[in-house]
């Protein structure tokens, strides 16, 4: 089966993971321009217009037909609601877009809605203050009420420093360790398996050092939360956890994350199992995999050099 990864940018490791799973199928990478490293790692490159532009749906359908794409994998938060609206139409063409339904995405992408959902379904979160409420104790932690990842999230030590001109969520400052949990769901929203990974060092909201650890409470509650939301495919749950405090959920990114390669290599094998689901082999995809615990990821950057002719050839 051929795969198309959207907004591929520098997601070279995700391309490689799908290549290993898709063989003898091919993995294509798409982005706006040719100057993106993942396009040179993929088996083929596709240039697409902006997702929110009028020509995107037609260009995507044309690319899928031309390259025999069976699975489209979004990787950018802003693209998800748009692709959710295209999901049914592409399914009729024999193309699966790996995205949850619009209502689930809306809950994940609005942090106030996410906190309310967790409260209604019995999942703990850090205490969240109402917009008109001043915390009685500091420090607190603020994060944009909408938006992706850790951009704009920060500690605030005094009430006078609380932002008055931003739409932010104000929560108690948690001292328990921070975790990401890679959660694999089937295409009907049923939970399959999860890998907690402790965030040892974070840069710009993304883990650059992380370690898989067997924490049943995190695993079980993360699977249950994703099931309650009706998510599909690979998702990244963010939470605080210690044995003393228990699990407190922060947010969910309903897509592959920047450090998800750790869980893939630790045995979750989500690209392989997602392809099995799309091919109809749900029993094989659902079978639990052996997982490697205490596997540590140390991320580093790598340069790729391309000449003018190589850049010009992208998308031909």
Description:
This protein is α/β, with parallel strands linked by helices and 316 residues long. 32% of the residues lie in helices and 27% in strands. It is built from eleven helices and 15 strands. It has helices at residues 12-22, 37-41, 56-67, 80-92, 102-109, 111-120, 216-229, 261-268, 270-278, 282-286, 308-313, and strands at 2-5, 27-31, 44-47, 69-73, 96-97, 128-129, 140-144, 154-156, 168-172, 178-185, 191-203, 206-212, 233-242, 246-253, 296-298. The strands form three sheets. A six-stranded antiparallel β-sheet has the order 14-13-10-11-12-15. Strands 3-2-1-4-5 form a five-stranded parallel β-sheet. A four-stranded antiparallel β-sheet has the order 6-9-7-8, covered by helices on one side. Strand 11 and strand 12 form a beta hairpin. Helix 5 (102-109) packs across helix 6 (111-120). The chain is globular, with a radius of gyration of 20 Å. The two termini are 21 Å apart.
Silhouette: globular
* Tally of separate domains: 3
Average predicted local confidence, pLDDT: 95
Describe the main β-sheet briefly: 6 strands, antiparallel
CATH superfamily of the largest domain: ATP-grasp fold, B domain
Residue runs with pLDDT of under 50 for 5 or more positions:
none
Q: Assess the beta-strand content as a share of residues.
A: 25-35%
């Amino acid at each position: 089966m051929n795969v198309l990864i959207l907004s591929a940018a520098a997601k070279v490791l995700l391309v490689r993971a799908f290549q290993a799973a898709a063989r003898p199928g091919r993995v294509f990478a798409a982005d706006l321009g040719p100057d993106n490293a993942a396009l040179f790692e993929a088996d083929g490159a596709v240039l697409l217009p902006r997702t929110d532009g009028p020509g995107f749906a037609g260009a995507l359908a044309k690319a899928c037909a031309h390259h025999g794409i069976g699975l489209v994998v979004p990787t950018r938060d802003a693209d998800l609601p748009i692709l959710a609206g295209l999901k049914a139409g592409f399914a009729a063409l024999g193309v699966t877009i790996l995205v949850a339904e619009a209502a689930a995405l809306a809950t994940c992408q609005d942090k106030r809605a996410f906190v309310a959902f967790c409260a209604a379904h019995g999942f703990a979160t850090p205490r969240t203050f109402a917009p008109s409420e001043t915390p009685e104790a500091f420090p607190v932690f603020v994060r944009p009420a909408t938006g992706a990842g850790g951009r704009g999230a920060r500690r605030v030590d005094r009430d006078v420093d609380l932002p008055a001109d931003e739409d932010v969520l104000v929560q108690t400052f948690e001292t328990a360790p921070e975790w990401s949990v890679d959660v694999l769901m089937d295409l009907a929203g049923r939970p399959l398996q999860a890998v907690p990974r402790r965030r040892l060092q974070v840069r710009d909201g993304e883990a650059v050092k992380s370690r898989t650890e067997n924490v049943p409470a995190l695993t079980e509650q993360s699977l249950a939360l994703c099931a309650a939301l009706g998510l599909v495919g690979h998702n990244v749950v963010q939470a605080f956890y210690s044995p003393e405090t228990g699990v407190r959920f922060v947010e969910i990114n309903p897509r592959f994350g920047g450090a998800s390669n750790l869980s893939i290599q630790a045995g979750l094998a989500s690209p392989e199992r997602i392809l099995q689901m799309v091919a109809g082999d749900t029993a094989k995809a659902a079978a639990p995999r052996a997982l490697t615990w205490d596997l540590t990821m140390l991320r580093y950057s790598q340069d790729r050099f391309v000449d003018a002719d190589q850049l010009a050839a992208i998308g031909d």
